[in-house]
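Example record used in the benchmark description.
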Amino acid sequence: MPQVSQFLRRAVQANAKGVATIDGDRQQTWQSLYDRVAKLAGSLAGLGLKPGDRVGILALNCDRYFESFFALSWAGLVFVPINTRLAPPEIVFWLADSECSALVVDDAFQPILPQVLPKTPTVQHVVYIGNGPTPADQLSYETLVDTGTPIPVSDRRGDDIAGLYYTGGTTGRSKGVMLTHSNIMFN
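Model output (structure tokens):
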């Protein structure tokens, strides 16, 4: 049965030494990406996140966003991408409605966290994927990767939920749309 992380495993089989991502002065191969994803998945599981838990990501495009997408799938967690154009009350709604246990966030969205986090008590962990110093109340993404113990790929696949994507909410409140591993793989 399909599992989102198959994309990554296949890329390693086909071209392990090929360039996977370039982000500013950071560049890595498919093998390096694979190794980092497995370690990040292990660290997320080590935080007590369990398969099926939801993890929001509020960040601009970057290599760490890409890694997070695969690591969440690898660990059996549900990816909840937060629209970067939302106002803080809408972000609160998405995080609360999806019952996110953690949030991955970059520098661009640090200023709104004081408006969001007090209203989202299910968010127990905030992972900082920015380029600056990690805020004191957040977990360092790079530390999670560096100290993580790789785990096997989760057995969540096929019709298990992989992502919770929200509609635009143009005619009312946004609604969460569950996409399975099969949905994402076949799209």
